[in-house]
Model the fold of this input.
Amino acid sequence: MPIVEVSPGMSIAYEAFGDPADAPVLLVMGLGGQLIAWHEDFCRALADRGRYVIRYDNRDCGLSTKFDDHPVDMGRLIGALGSGDFPSARALVPYTLQDLADDGLDLLTALGIERAHVVGSSMGGMIAQTMAITRPARVLTLTSMMSSTGEPEYGRSTPEAQAVVSAPKPADREGYVAAAERELVWASKRYGDPAVLRELAAHSYDRAYYPAGAARQLGAVVLGGSRADALRELQVPTLVIHGLDDTLINPDGGQRTAELVPGAKLLLIPDMGHDRPRELWPEIVDAIGAHTGLVA
Done:
């Protein structure tokens, strides 16, 4: 798998599908998720629509650069945020949401791609929004999937989903794979499949088990704050996709995003949770294919 240095000291692992002569689509994954969370078959289905599809590992995840020298004490971070001590909170986190966005754009630069369609899922949607807000000339279209605006009153998790995402991951492979079934709490009620969750967990563990990075990524997201004012001014063609079964990021996070971005299209999908079940790939791929076909 290619790993490219995109800036001094920062290497990003990526994989591409399709013809490089086709319109590029950059897929941005969410919190702690490796590029393999964008299933290969999903990527190929999108590539079959005449798109050059690029999936990659965010920093602190997968095979990309790790920040081992900057451990984050989540207790101290939460305490600083709760008391409103934002300078102390920022000092605990080694990078920002903007840095995560820059990594993706720097990867495009390294691949010789000036502009791309950007599709982000969950935290990846927040990263993709940041790309479009701060570097609009480089984003042909934005697709924000199962994400939110950074406003604390929107996209809230249910207590049950929050408990799962906050629980420590088992360190042993067997325990890690078994614990993946907890994610059924936010999966599609109709299509959620524990076998699929276990398969991805096993692949992820074997490829690059690294739970420490998720704390730093989460810190970057929390400190990113609200993007509401910037989204109101966004002129990048935007599609918002959200599942109505999503309990990790409430669908009102997607609705709010579409409400703020001028001219945004909103696709609310029944039977989709905070996941992308294979059964819904045709609808999702069709929507992304149509949206990315608007601008060449």
Remarks:
- Residues 194-208 form the longest helix (15 residues).
